[in-house]
Amino acid sequence: MSKMTVEVVTPERVVYSGQASMVIARGVQGDLGILPKHMPMVTPLKIAPVQIKVEGDQVVRMAVSGGFMEVRGDKVTILAETAEMPGDIDVERAKASKGRAEKRLSEKYPELDVQRAERSLQRALARIDVTK
Ligand code: ATP
Fold first, then answer.
1. Phi-psi bin for 73: left (phi > 0), alpha (psi -120 to 50), beta?
2. Which residue's CA is minimally distant from atom 19 of ligand 1?
3. 30 shares a domain with 76
4. Are residues 106 and 80 in the same domain?
5. Is the same domain home to 78 and 94?
6. Nearest atom in ligand 1 to 123's CA
């Protein structure tokens, strides 16, 4: 089966690099399943898990936030503010972050930056999700 090269990169490091038969990501306009020979494309991603189908139908799941995905030839590049593999995620930290965001959103005090709290909640949920 034909393969694609996938790289997930943050300002800090290359978080993932490898061959894949499919990449599933949540674009701003909906879920995207990228297969080899996909047409060239660039799209912003929602804060969500990204799934990379590798050798033998194994799936690598990653939490990605502030990301863009570029598809060009048989290369998929995800540039993101943050990206973590499940093994790099501190679940207790994500749960604490989720709790803070939920508390802020339920209190809704006037000076609350609602979008910021919602983004924080999405990051925490994506991190918890990929560790399951
Ligand atoms: P927190 O409130 O716990 O700091 P956050 O969503 O505000 O969470 P980010 O600003 O998205 O954190 O990330 C800052 C850095 O910390 C990034 O390098 C990110 O990969 C890392 N990071 C954030 N949360 C976790 C976590 N639960 N486990 C491991 N690394 C994390």
1. left
2. 82
3. yes
4. no
5. no
6. 6
Ligand 1 probe mutation, 93, 100, 104, most atoms within 8 A of CB: 93
d(CA 117, CA 104): 7
Residue 74 alpha carbon to ligand 1 centre in Å: 31
The predicted-structure confidence for 57-102, as pLDDT tens digits, reads as follows 799 999 999 999 999 999 999 999 999 999 999 999 999 999 999 9
75/108 same-domain check: no
Is-contact 126 63, C-beta < 8 A?
yes
| Dist CA 94 CA 26 (whole Å) | 20
- What's the total number of domains in the chain? 2
Tokens coding 112: 């609350």
In this structure, the residue with its CA closest to atom 10 of ligand 1 is: 82
Q: Which atom belonging to ligand 1 lies closest to the Cα atom of 66?
A: 11
CATH number at residue 34: 2.60.15.10
Distance 46 CA to ligand 1 centre (A): 16
Put simply, whether the predicted model's pTM sits higher than 0.90 gets the answer: yes
Query: Same domain for 79 and 106?
Result: no
